[in-house]
Known about the structure:
single chain, 188 residues, Alpha-Beta Plaits, four-stranded antiparallel β-sheet, globular
Amino acid sequence: MSEKIFIKNMVCHRCILMVEQILEKLNLPYKQVTLGEAILENNLQLAQKKLLEQSLQELGFERIDDKISRTIEKLKTAIIQWVREEEKANPINLSDYLIEQLHQDYSTLSHLFSEVEGITIEKYAIAQKIERVKELLVYDELSLKEIAHQLNYSSTAYLSNQFKKITGLSPSHFKKIKNNKRIPLDKI
């Protein structure tokens, strides 16, 4: 019988690969690993659970069991995915996206997130977008205008103002700083 486990701090494709490597190393056959969860082919025994939790923690991940923590982690993962998907041609409203992904009422999700995280979903999403802007600025492949367009900002000025409000720096000043210190996505 298969078992679904939920994993905190998975934020990108590399995280999926790392969890897959852990499962293979521990000889735990799995059906699928996605952001925030893994479906194992068999139920874990107590000793296997402990080894898995220890291996995950060594790489900065954490197995989560309670429903509230799982919901918060799913919300964070969905917001990160939304930021990445927003770069596509047909953007979807964040609240609609979260309803679609989590199959729950947005006001319930919003209240829970604010209560647990001490920040609104909208502020968390803005922080994620700014981290994506930082990433794109560091890559230095796109102009600020192209970044604004790609992330569906209404204007370059709006992006610049939001960036400065969050980071304290203008995008151009941030770009000049070579030893910039990005906040890991799981720490936002």
